[in-house]
Every structure is written in structure tokens, then in C-alpha cells.
Amino acid sequence: MLATNDRVIRKALRDLLGKELGRHRKHGCRAEIVEELGVQHGTARIDFAIFNGTIHGYEIKSDCDTLQRLPEQVQEFSTVFDKLTIVVGKSHLYQAMHIVPDWWGVTVAKYNIANRLVLQTIRRPEKNNEQIGLSIARLLWRKEALQILEERNKAEGLRSKPRETIYVKLVDVLDIKTLKRTVSAALISRGNWRPGAQLTSSGG
Length: 204
Fold this sequence. Notes:
alpha/beta, Trna Endonuclease, Chain: A, domain 1, 2 domains, 7 helices, elongated
């Protein structure tokens, strides 16, 4: 059995998500894909995130990777994303399905008889009920969070405060549904991602 690696899975997943992005845009929806998106102030990075009104994260674990950090990543990512999917090499499938929660999607990456990599859906993701508003707010840059408060006349006394104070205020001002929609819109509109968080256009 050929072993998968991060590079080949990443390319296949990028192509697949690029097609999904194209479908969203064809129907007039604003959407973007980001690679290596930092969460929790960059303490963790998820391999892909697609923003299309909801925020769906994808984490890759190839046959050449280990699952050592997966339990910690599950905790970090589950506070942020509306949906999550693990894309895993066949050798890790059984173990991974016992680590991720039942609401996570599971896709296996494997080679077919023609030695072509295929992504097979084992379980579709369900809605996440474990999100935390503060973790979602931390996806924003400080200036973005402050701008959202400025637009709602809620920035008084906060302009010189640390970013965490601004995030806390944002969570206090916006209900969770509005917060998720607002953060998603801000990330789609972001023009200059920092190095390591690459914006991917439709079609990869």
C-alpha cells in the first residue's frame, strides 16, 4: 500500500475545495479559502479553512504524520469552527475516528488501484455546538475587531486597550450568531493575510 504524505493530500484537498469555492461564487456568494489559518492567537494552525457564511476547517493527517497532537488540536479547533473535517491517511483512519468527536467529518485519503489519490468521505461533518465566542473573535486582527465596535458606537475607551480586552467587548456586544457572521465577513474581505496564511483563489 502506498503511503500518503502531506503534500499530495494538500494538493488534492486544495483542488476539491477550489471547486466548492467556485460553486459558491457562481451562486453569488462571497467565499474564500485560507491555508494554514492560525487560531487562538496563532498557538495552533489548521491546514485549510473555507469561509462562505460558515467557517469550515480541515485538518490533514497523512500516513507519514503522527496523531500525537490531534487531541490538543481537537480541543483548540472545536472552540472556533462551525464545522470540522479531518482528512486522514488510511493507516490512521481507525485511531483518528476514536479521537475526533462524532460531529467531526472524516475523509480518508488513499490510493486506488491505478495509484491515483482519492478522497473518500467516511462521515459528513455536523453542526458544532462547542464554539466559544472569544475563540471566534480571536480570528480577527485587533484593528478589525475595533472597527466592528466603532461601527456600532461601542469603542469608547477601548482604542488604546490590548486586543484581548477588545475581543471580550466584542463578544459582549454581539450574540454568537451575529459574531460568527461578522467574523466570517471580515475574513473574506481581508486583503493582506500575514505570511503563512495563504489566500487561495477559486480553482486552487
